[in-house]
């Protein structure tokens, strides 16, 4: 990047629509210096929603300039063959990203250009995502997080995926020409699906399938738990047993579907919309949850290492509590008062008895 080039000044001008064409050309030259990998990383970090101003306010002449910038950016990103390479996975709201404001701004500029004409993006992605894959087996890729790790990812169609700790998702290197299919092997995820009536988004997890056109919702399928749950924030979700398509639920915002492993039943229950994927905001609501269930939740989200000692009755104690933006230590302290137990830390493990 050239010395003396103030990215933030150019960013503010571009966002307000006051960046002269000659300065836009200079900005394009700077972007051309990025490697394909850097361009792709910036692209995904912004999740396609950095700004919407340009689309609504650009003049026809400026739209042509932005279209050219968009196409040049796409050529840069596509140089790494994004549908055939392992996914670039980025931490969910990493602290270093905001500290390095110049990098954040540089990537935002790139997204300002690509979000300038969403119609152009739709056409280009349609040609990439929906091209039939003939005479070639589609390779499946994996996204996986460890306990205490959260990550985000954006699919080629613009659908956003957020993974909580200890989660694993499989997806094709290229979507088919009829549906967009992914698999959730385990864990907890939140999906904001890009609407496409012609290509339903289908998620398989355990014995359950979820079918949507465009909506946002969370899915939880943890090994050892008695059920699989889907909670809807926006749109509509069809939730059904993959072995029996007649056994299904249509879920609306403010409701969640539960599939019980034991009796293979589907249930529908109300859920506060603000509680959907609360883990993304470090918010946890426990309703009649056992201590063991709470500790496991903290293990998944924060990487809490724990050991329960003493009577087995302790692990079965039930709690009703809501935590918002609290540390693990403060949550354990409150739970110990409510449940009349003690705990201490030995090395990196919390001993509870």
From TrEMBL:
Organism of provenance: Niastella koreensis
Record's protein name: Anti-FecI sigma factor, FecR
Recorded superkingdom: Bacteria
InterPro entries (alphabetical): FecR, FecR_C, Ferrdict_sens_TM
Sequence intervals crossing the membrane: 101-120
Positions of the Protein FecR C-terminal domain: 283-349
Name of a matching Pfam family: FecR_C
Keywords: Membrane, Transmembrane, Transmembrane helix
Annotated ranges, domain FecR protein: 143-237
């Amino acid at each position: 990047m050239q010395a003396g080039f103030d990215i933030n000044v150019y960013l503010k001008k571009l966002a307000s629509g006051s960046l002269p064409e000659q300065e836009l050309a200079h900005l394009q030259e700077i972007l051309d210096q990025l490697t394909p990998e850097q361009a792709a990383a910036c692209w995904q970090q912004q999740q396609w929603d950095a700004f919407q101003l340009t689309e609504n306010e650009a003049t026809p002449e400026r739209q042509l300039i932005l279209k050219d910038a968009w196409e040049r950016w796409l050529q840069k990103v596509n140089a790494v063959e994004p549908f055939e390479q392992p996914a670039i996975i980025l931490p969910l709201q990493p602290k270093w990203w905001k500290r390095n404001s110049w990098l954040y701004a540089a990537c935002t500029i790139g997204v300002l250009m690509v979000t300038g004409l969403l119609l152009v993006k739709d056409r280009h992605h349609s040609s990439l995502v929906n091209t039939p894959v003939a005479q070639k087996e589609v390779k499946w890729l994996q996204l996986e997080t460890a306990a205490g790790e959260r990550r985000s990812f954006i699919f080629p169609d613009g659908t956003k995926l957020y993974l909580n700790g200890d989660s694993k998702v499989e997806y094709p290197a290229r979507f088919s020409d009829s549906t967009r299919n992914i698999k959730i092997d385990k864990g907890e995820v939140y999906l904001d699906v890009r609407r496409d009536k012609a290509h339903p988004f289908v998620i398989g997890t355990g014995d359950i399938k979820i079918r949507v056109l465009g909506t946002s919702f969370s899915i939880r399928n943890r090994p050892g738990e008695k059920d699989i749950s889907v909670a809807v924030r926006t749109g509509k979700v069809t939730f059904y047993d993959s072995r029996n398509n007649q056994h299904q639920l249509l879920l609306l915002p403010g409701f969640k579907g539960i599939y019980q492993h034991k009796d293979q039943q589907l249930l529908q229950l109300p859920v506060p919309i603000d509680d959907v994927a609360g883990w993304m905001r470090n918010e946890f609501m426990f309703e009649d949850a056992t201590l063991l269930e709470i500790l496991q939740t903290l293990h998944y989200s924060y990487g809490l290492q724990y050991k329960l000692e003493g009577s087995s009755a302790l692990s079965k104690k039930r709690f009703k509590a809501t935590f918002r933006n609290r540390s693990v230590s403060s949550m354990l302290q409150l739970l110990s008062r409510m449940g009349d137990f003690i705990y201490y830390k030995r090395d990196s493990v919390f001993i509870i008895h």
